[in-house]
Design a protein that fits this description.
Blueprint lengths: L27 H13 L12 E5 L2 E4 L4 E4 L2 H4 L8 H13 L11 H13 L6 E6 L2 H16 L3 E5 L8 H6 L17 E4 L4 H4 L3 H16 L4 E6 L15 H11 L3 E5 L23 E4 L10 E6 H4 L15 H16 L2 H23 L2 E7 L2 E6 L9 H13 L2 E2 L1 E3 L5 E4 L7 H19 L1
Parallel strand pairs: 3-13, 5-6, 5-7, 7-8, 8-9
Antiparallel strand pairs: 1-2, 2-3, 4-10, 9-10, 11-12, 12-15, 14-15
Helix pairs in contact: 3-11, 4-11, 8-9, 12-14, 13-14
Length: 452
């Protein structure tokens, strides 16, 4: 039986849906492994919380010391359907026993086609669409740019302040934040241009005004006719869950359409029910020419996709797109399992319910402590921006202090933001309400103690 009822705290996959600490966090076994990690793993690979996981299900992560932590990160918006969701596990097991790989560009298999059909059906717009599958978000972003350039025969790529698009060379160049993503890793690819982002809690501008500013810069500094693609996250992820003012995205879409520019929504973090819609673009009523997905698509297996207008996607010569592992059959099986869970359990409604529960409680913390200047986000993608009391000065130190205190008390939270002063919450949409309320109580306590 499939157990993800969001109002009950019934165990999921035999794991009690309760926070329970039996040692310090990290505990002795994790600390012992940490020593091995230091001598085996590159120091360039960071970590938010150095515990070692043994099992995970629903909204709980169990570490090797036996501690159960509430998962408010979903492995960065990946396991929205819950960790090791039964339907994902079953389909993966069936597929892995049949065959593990053929390379889709050597011989085909149905799962790949079925995932593309699902993407074409679920993404915004009822125009004719095509999809192509890849391994990671960054790889999909790279391919979206390749396709847009090939289709338009133009080179310029427009991105935005605070944007994040990945860690490969092209996507590093597209990413806004220097440390830690870019420092020392240049030179970066040419023909990438960064425009001002609508950031209503800071710039106070209406969407149309902010868009007019960006559009004026594109016209004057780049020339609209030279732009291949505008690539934007409809809600920024790593940049701190910046939600653009209403009207900003539609104005950009209009500008793109008028000038033959491919409008690309990077929905790697926002896609697949995360914001309470299948895709965050839907909140603004926009229909992107191309949409990039990854993270939440396959319940934890590595898979990514580019979905777009048929005439754009089919403009690339056969053989121009692909990759050895791209659209691996096991990852495709996982995606089909995940999508089945999202549809059957209505995870969009669950995400919206998470927003309903979280926002008032976080606003109360803001009112009580005076160090949160903004509570924002949509669905199960909610953040608080932390500042020095009575100012708009970013407070990364306080953010880290609260995050560490949450970790020590069994709530796994993540930070974000260009200034490192955003605490972001990405719970799995299947998390029980009781567990979510418990996490919020812990978060509230840590804010109170840190600001006392
Ligand atoms: C995470 C992320 C990426 C990169 O995805 P990877 O799978 O880590 O390569 C790209 N864009 C956005 C918006 C992301 O959040």
């Amino acid at each position: 039986m499939f157990m993800t009822a969001s109002n009950s705290s019934a165990p999921v996959n035999g794991i009690a849906q309760e926070r329970n600490l039996v040692t310090a966090v990290p505990g002795p076994k994790s600390l012992a492994l940490q020593a091995r990690r230091t001598s085996a793993v590159s120091g360039g690979v960071g970590v938010a919380l150095p515990i070692y996981v043994e099992r995970a299900a629903g909204g709980i992560v169990v570490d090797i010391d036996g501690n159960s932590l509430i998962d408010m990160g979903s492995g960065i918006a990946v396991t929205g359907v819950g960790n090791a969701a039964e339907e994902v596990v079953t389909r993966v097991q069936e597929q892995v026993a049949k065959f593990t790989h053929t390379c889709f560009t050597v011989t085909h298999y149905e799962g790949y086609v079925e995932v593309c059909e699902a993407l074409n059906r679920l993404t915004p717009g009822d125009h004719e669409k095509r999809s192509a599958l890849f391994n990671s978000g960054a790889e999909a972003v790279e391919n979206a740019v390749k396709i847009a350039r090939s289709h338009t025969k133009r080179q310029m790529v427009v991105v935005f302040e605070h944007g994040y698009h990945g860690r490969t060379n092209l996507t590093m160049g597209m990413t806004a934040k220097n440390i830690p993503y870019k420092e020392g890793f240049g030179p970066f690819a040419p023909e990438i241009y960064r425009m001002p982002m609508s950031n209503p809690s800071h710039d106070g501008l209406a969407g149309a005004e902010a868009a007019a500013h960006a559009i004026s810069k594109m016209n004057k500094e780049l020339g609209a006719g030279n732009i291949a693609a505008i690539v934007i996250e409809p809600i920024q992820g790593e940049g701190g869950f910046v939600v653009p003012a209403t009207g900003f995205l539609p104005e950009l879409v209009k500008f793109a359409k008028e000038n033959g520019i491919v409008f690309v929504a990077d929905e790697v973090q926002t896609g697949f029910c995360r914001t309470g819609q299948w895709f965050a673009s839907e909140h603004e009523g926009i229909v992107p020419d191309m949409i990039i997905t990854a993270k939440g698509i396959a319940g934890g297996l590595p898979l990514a996709a580019v979905t777009g207008r048929a005439e754009i996607m089919d403009s690339v010569a056969a053989g121009g797109l692909g990759g050895t592992y791209a659209g691996n059959p096991i990852a495709c099986a996982a995606a089909l399992g995940s999508i089945a869970v999202m549809e059957r359990e209505d995870l969009n409604a669950k995400a919206r319910r998470i927003e309903e529960i979280m926002k008032p409680r976080l606003q109360k913390i803001a009112d009580d402590t005076g160090v949160i200047c903004d509570v924002r986000g949509r669905g199960a993608m909610i953040a608080v921006e932390i500042v020095k009391k009575g100012s708009m000065e970013p407070d990364a130190e306080m953010t880290n202090k609260v995050a560490k205190a949450c970790h020590a008390n069994g709530v796994l939270v993540l930070t974000a933001g260009t200034y490192g002063n955003v605490l972001r919450f990405l719970p799995p949409m299947v998390m029980s309400e009781q567990l979510l309320e418990d996490a919020l109580t812990i978060i509230e306590q840590q804010f109170k103690e840190a600001t006392a």
